[in-house]
Amino acid sequence: VGLFRAGMFDGIAAGTHDTTRGVAGAFVRTLKGVERLKHWRDKLGGATRITVSTLVDASTLAEIPAILDWVVEMGLDELHLVPLDQDVGGINYGANGYEFESGWFEKNPLWIRDIAKLEEVIGYVIAKKRAGYPVADPVTFLEHMIPYFRDAGGIQHLRPCRAGSELMRIT
Question: How far apart are CA 117 and CA 65, in angstroms?
Answer without folding.
Answer: 12
